[in-house]
Amino acid sequence: MIELNNINKSFSGRLVIDDISIKFDQGKTNLIIGQSGSGKTVLLKCIVGLFDVDSGQIFYGKTEFTNLDFLAKKEVRKQIGMLFQGGALFDSSTVEENVRFPLDMFTNMSDSEKLARVNFCLDRVQLENVNRLFPSEISGGMKKRVAIARAISLNPKFLFCDEPNSGLDPQTSIVIDNLIKEITEEYNITTIINTHDMNSVMEIGDKVVFIYQGKKIWEGTKEEIFHVNNKYLNDFVFASPLSKRIRKLANG
Fold it and tell me: Is residue 86 one of the residues assigned to a domain?
């Protein structure tokens, strides 16, 4: 579980995150949605500590993350997996080296133990015989699966995904969504996903939070989102390419 209490963040006097409080559930896919520039990515970076908040509290379980010093935050980060927009693989490293990177950084495992863990994670995302390949030699969907394998290599309690379907075709996006959902439930992870993809909301959104101009406007389930009387949320939901399907579902 991750809990935010009255989080605020400004840049050069401009308020970007405005008094946001949210509880993200363990073992669930928690989706943050909103237009580009709404503050989703800044919020995610605040939660993982890439940005310090101006005020408010962030709890990882019972640990108040915002109160910790650098070394204590580093210990918490060992429990965090990150799936960056675009995958963010190291182009000059092989698939195996990419997945192994967090193990080299944060563990004292032997080489054989690291290889076993790498192979386990690659198998879990349904990738075989790719260890020696470089990112330029695999497809976009495979790159995302390698990035997921790297994100779970440390067996994290918390998983953050920033626009995981960016640049993928619809069919591959569904594969990635379902994989994230399966891993979340299988390992009882607290997963937070930034997205503007309504298909992801409809497919895997256990809890959905809508951010508008730095404020939390609404939170609820993917079923409830069809019946909310909020102009900003409705404009976002029904402007998507899936608007016809959503309208049909909303009308029963």
Answer: no
Please state whether beta strands 207-212 and 215-220 pair in parallel, antiparallel, or not at all (unpaired).
antiparallel
Q: What is the pTM of this model?
A: 0.89
Answer yes or no: are the C-beta atoms of 202 and 250 closer than 8 Å.
Answer: no
Tell me which residue of 234, 237, 249, 155 sits closest to 198, measured CA to CA: 237
Residue 112 in any domain: the answer is no
Map 237-250 to HEC letters: HHCCCCHHHHHHHH
pLDDT at position 32:
96
**Residue 21, domain member (yes or no):** yes
Is 215 a member of any domain? yes
- The 10s digit of each residue's pLDDT in 72-106 is 998 898 899 988 776 688 999 999 999 999 999 88
Domain hosting 38: range is 1-63+191-252
Buried b (16+ CB within 10 A) or exposed e, 74-103: eebbebbbbbbeebebeeeebbbbbbbbbb
Residues near 64 by Cβ (< 8 Å), separated by ≥ 6? 57, 58
**What total number of domains does the chain contain?**
1
Q: What are phi and psi for residue 220, nearest 5 degrees? A: 175, -155
pLDDT digits (tens, 9 = 90+) for 216-228: 999 999 889 888 8
